[in-house]
Amino acid sequence: MKARRKSKASIKTTSVRKKARAKANSVKPDIPLPADWPQYTTREYYTWMMRGMPQDAIVANWSQHASHRSHSPIFWYQDKLLSCRNCGAEFVFTKNEQRVWYEEYKLPIQVKAVCCTTCRQRQRKEKGPAKG
After folding, report:
1. The pTM is what?
2. Tens digits of residue pLDDT in 20-65
3. CB-based contacts of 85: which residues, under 8 Å, 6+ apart?
4. What Å distances lie between residue 38 and 52, 61, 103, CA to CA?
5. Which of 63, 66, 60 is nearest to 37 (CA)?
6. C-alpha dihedral sign at 112, 115, 116, 117
7. Is residue 75 within 8 Å of residue 49, measured between CB atoms?
8. Contact 60, 74 (CB under 8 A)
9. Which residues contact 59 (CB under 8 A, 6 or more apart)?
10. Rounded to the nearest 5°, which phi and psi values hold at 71?
C-alpha cells in the first residue's frame, strides 16, 4: 500500500497556520489579565471576550467564585430579564445581585434567580426567621 504524500500546497498552508498561531501567541494583550489567572481559558480567549464586554457590565472576579470546574467561566455580569416561576412576572436579575450571589455567597455560577424579589420576600416571611 502506498503512503500518501502531502502536496506542496498542503505543507505551505500548514506552515502559514503555524506561523500565524505563533504570532498570535507572542502578541501582548492590550487588556489587563486577572491576577488569579484560571487554567480553563487562554489569554487570547480572555482578551477576545473582554473586547466584547458591554459598557455597563461589571467584570467578574474569578478568584471569588466557588470552584465550578467549568470551561465556560463568567467574564462579566450584566442585567438579565427573567420570568418569575411563581407569579410569571418579568423581573431583572441585576448585575450587582449576580456579583453578590457568585462572589460573596459563593453560589455555583450555573445558579440563577427563578423568583422575583416580591416572591422571594414572601417566601422568607413564610419560612420565618433564619436559624443560626
Report:
1. 0.67
2. 555 555 445 566 666 666 666 788 888 888 899 999 999 998 888 8
3. 114, 115
4. 19, 11, 15
5. 63
6. negative
7. yes
8. yes
9. 50, 53, 75, 76
10. -95, 5
- Which grid coordinates are listed for 124? 422568607
Q: How far apart are CA 85 and CA 82, in angstroms?
A: 9
CA angle at residue 109 from 103 to 57, to 5 degrees?
65
Higher pLDDT, 17 or 57: 57
CA–CA distance, 64 with 106 (Å, rounded to integer): 7
* DSSP-assigned letters across all residues of 38-98: -TTS-HHHHHHHHHT--TT-EE--GGGSPP---SS---EE--EEEE-TTT--EEEE-HHHH
- Answer whether 108's CB lies under 8 Å from 66's CB: yes
- Contact between 111 and 122 under an 8 Å Cβ cutoff? The reply is no
